[in-house]
Write a structure and sequence with these properties.
272 residues, mainly alpha, 12 helices, 69% helix
């Protein structure tokens, strides 16, 4: 098949949306058992695993085989790693202050408000961001060079995210570092290596889809993710809470906010 099958694609979108709804309803049930809504943070990565699995099977006989496998493997590896990491990190902890603050605005039933403002919104956002996965899976044209560039960008992203998370865990495990700012490993070059890695992952997945039409039209997906990570609920909120820590001002002054760069002090010394 040489042309994009629109009817099959929209049927696939429906199945992906259903999978996301089911995952979120299961998560909501789990939140009532756990007594906290931040369990959805663990499900966030799993939403894209579900989207990738459903898209893979729904696109059978419609999309290029190799691209379908890439768009199954890349989101699945990233999403499962993220879910495991977030799940382990949240064990034994209470509710996230972000969700407590949000639920304080509820005028009626807090759980219905949570379904609408936490679960529904994240579900819609997940469906939008998953667009390269779903669209790309139905593209019939063979994989070309741009897709392999996307795989490399994705791999860089997974490296920064996974290594950055591991370095942060090791730093936090040392009681002597309590109240301090991490300034080692990847964190010397960017204040948010995990967020930078997350953005690279989604630009990489987009490039796999953008290797053929109409995948290029899904560019809004990595743009949305990058904005969320930099000016949305990611770096901006985290830096607000980190600004009270010892050494933060000096660290922020010499370290790139997002894109990895050599520390500014070293560049100044080299120029002098």
């Amino acid at each position: 098949m040489d042309s994009f099958d629109g009817a099959a694609f929209w049927a696939g979108v429906g199945w992906v949306a259903l999978a996301i709804v089911v995952l979120l309803l299961i998560t909501f049930g789990a939140s009532r058992v756990a007594g906290r809504h931040n369990v959805i943070d663990t499900t966030w990565g799993l939403l894209f695993v579900g989207a990738a699995v459903v898209s893979f099977f729904a696109s059978s006989g419609h999309g290029d085989g190799l691209r379908r496998w890439l768009l199954l493997a890349l989101p699945a590896v990233w999403g499962l790693r993220l879910a495991i990491h977030v799940g382990r990190r949240s064990l034994g902890k209470g509710e996230d202050p972000r969700y407590e603050k949000l639920l304080d605005k509820a005028k009626g039933n807090r759980q219905l408000y949570a379904l609408r403002m936490i679960y529904s919104l994240q579900g819609l956002l997940g469906l939008l961001i998953a667009a390269p996965i779903v669209v790309g899976a139905f593209e019939p044209r063979p994989v070309r060079v741009l897709a392999w560039i996307g795989v490399v960008v994705w791999a860089v992203g997974v490296f920064f995210e996974a290594v950055g998370d591991q370095q942060m865990e090791r730093f936090r495990a040392n009681p002597g570092n309590k109240g301090k700012v991490i300034d080692e490993g990847l964190w010397r070059y960017t204040r948010h290596p995990n967020y930078f890695g997350d953005a690279c992952v989604w630009w990489g997945i987009f490039l796999v889809a953008a290797d053929a039409l109409p995948g290029v039209a899904t560019v809004f997906s990595p743009i949305i993710m990058t904005l969320l990570l930099t000016v949305g609920s990611g770096a901006r909120l985290l830096e607000r809470s980190m600004s009270t820590r010892t050494g933060w001002d000096e660290y922020a002054a010499r370290t790139s906010m997002f894109f990895p760069l050599p520390p500014r002090a070293k560049r100044a010394l080299a120029d002098s």
